[in-house]
Amino acid sequence: MTAAEGSSRAPVLDRVKGQPGAIGLLRGSLRAPLHAYLFIGPPGTGRRDASIAFAAALLCPSGGCGECTSCQEALALRHPDLAVIERAGASILVDQAREVARMALRTPRAARYQVLVLVDFDLVEKAAPALLKTIEEPPDTTVIVLIAETVPSQFVTIASRCVQVQFKPLDDEAIIEVLMREGVEVATATSVAEAAGGRLDRARLLARDPGFAERLQRWRSVPSRLDGTGARVAELADELLASVAEPLEVVRARQAEELALLQEEAERRGDRTIAGRSVIEDRHNRELRRVRTDEMRAGLAALSSVCRERLAETGVSPQRLRSALAAIAAIDEASTRLTRNVNATMLLQWLLLHLDT
Ligand SMILES: [Zn+2]
After folding, report:
1. 131 CA distance to ligand 1 centroid (A)?
2. CB 130, CB 101: distance < 8 Å
3. Span 166-189, pLDDT tens digits
4. Which CATH number fits domain 3-166: 3.40.50.300, 3.40.50.20, 3.40.50.1240, 3.40.50.1820?
5. Cα 52 from chain centroid?
């Protein structure tokens, strides 16, 4: 390795696992960073971690050693030249966007650059006009990183002015490796990786959820418990819905705790209520919907794997083969419908009727 390669290696970027393409691109742009980057991909694929590591590498006097005070401060989000802007409500607010535009004009305080990370750029909505100019032409010393799941059509122009960095769903091995490094046992890591759909955030949640294995088993038992009656279909659908609701209790308890803390803080300041409470409740509702959808998706994946196992059995009859294939197709269809805000009870009953052949 030459000296030049050594200095552009930026060990701090090694912290991001399972995204060699994205990290390679970022590593290559450290020497002469452009003004704006757009990290695109599903949540839980390392976009946020990568943005912080990239910022640390840009701010570090030795190009991202991961060890020095500058790197440590950046990784702990305490570096004076790094700001991570999270939306406070359902979308990025106009006030927040104006604040970002103002921050972009600052000169770096300690490093060569300042880095602004804007999370959930796809939810910028009405605040977009306040951000456009900033993203298109910030000062030379400002690097902006936008994080988004997809690029809404009204932002295609802005997106085209950014370096686009794609984050793919992680493969199971990468998830297992990270979980095991965090102290999760191999058997648990393997089973949650399968159910996490390439998302590390989901895998972490499941690894600490003692009821998860049992809930998956409930889904897996469904095909053998169907008996051709509508009554059984309704009963099983109710059972699965109750199962989907179980992890929501943990999330609700955590949300109640957050609100209680904020209320305490508000009272200490002499306020009677939490400022922007409805915005926080919107965020909580979104989180609940996401956990619920994720849980349904994991259940459907478990159900699908039972049907796939049937296909692989030796000496399987043509009739059993046909019904397993039809079941897999119905489960795929149900997974697709899940993204369209359908009524969960009706979706499950529809699916179970189709499985019951
Ligand atoms: Zn460093």
Report:
1. 30
2. yes
3. 999 999 999 999 899 999 999 989
4. 3.40.50.300
5. 15
